[in-house]
Amino acid sequence: MLIELIKSFRIRQWTKNIVVFAAIVFDRQLMNPASLGRSVLGFFVFCLVSSSIYIINDILDIHEDRLHPTKRYRPIASGKLPLPIAIAAWIVLLVISIPAGFWLSPWFGFVLLVYIGINVLYSKWLKHIPIIDVMVIAAGFVLRVGAGVTLIHVERFSPWLYLVILFGALLLGFGKRRAELASIANHNNLQRKVLDGYALNYLDYLLIVVSTATIMAYSLYTFSAPNMPANHSMMLTIPFVLYGIFRYLYIIHVEQKGESPEDLLITDRPIQITILAWGITVVLIFYIL
Question: 44-54 burial string, b = 16+ CB within 10 Å, else e?
Fold first, then answer.
């Protein structure tokens, strides 16, 4: 039962919370021990909150998940994790994470409450509304960045990054919906109801829009943000972002994958190499060169 409980936390999806570190990295405070410590603690607190959301989502969707070809094997849907234990785990996670969040920063705690609120609404209603469902997911990523900002004394953090994260999250969200819709066409699988409100060609148009917006927002950030190097060396990271986006679109359109974007960080070697190279370049430009 303990193993099933841990599975219900969906630890693999904790990778989404890495954007909490955006504030400390891009405000050039990565070498500040106090700021780094608070950001690390904030990351783990956010992970606990996100796990509580996954649990309550599985509880609310238990009947639908039992009819799904793959989701029926989840701990709660399969019955391997009893419902009372799941509810107790959800309460314990919130009892631990929310006070810890307010202890780190009152604003951080407030962001956690907003994040929990919109995700409960998402699990109950908003995930069934086309476009709104993906925008809520994107808002969650923006809130993660905002949570990271509340943990440190921000000096030069650029609001351009909020737009980059927003458009990037929309890209992943609409890409996920396209992959899911293509899966229905290819395998006739039972999928989420919201897909009835989407069409492949419409999602292709949306992907073009958000891909372009992501590239433009990131490019503008690299030479217009107030804390950028005077020699515009941050523009050297643009090719990595371009390749990462093109690779993601390749996976969706050519390889017919992408239903779980978070898994790409674990399984797709070119994306892993691109993210690593981009991260090393950013650190070199901001902290060494």
Answer: ebbbbbbbbbb
Residue 226 φ/ψ, nearest 5 degrees: -70, -20
Q: How far apart are CA 285 and CA 68, in angstroms?
A: 47
Instruction: Please report where in the chains the tokens 């891909």 appear, as a residue.
Output: 211
Q: Which of 15, 20, 33, 13 is nearest to 111 (CA)?
A: 20
pLDDT digits (tens, 9 = 90+) for 34-90: 999 999 999 999 999 999 999 999 998 888 888 777 788 889 988 899 999 999 999
With tokens 């700021």, the residue in question is: 35
Distance of CA 148 to the CA centre of its chain: 14
pLDDT per position as a tens digit, 191-226: 667 888 899 999 999 999 999 999 999 999 998 888
- Chain-centroid distance of CA 132 in Å reads 16
CA gap 23, 288 in Å, rounded: 18
* The two structure tokens encoding residue 285: 């430009």
pTM: 0.91
CATH of domain 1-154: 1.10.357.140
Q: What residue spans define the domains of the chain?
A: 1-154, 158-289
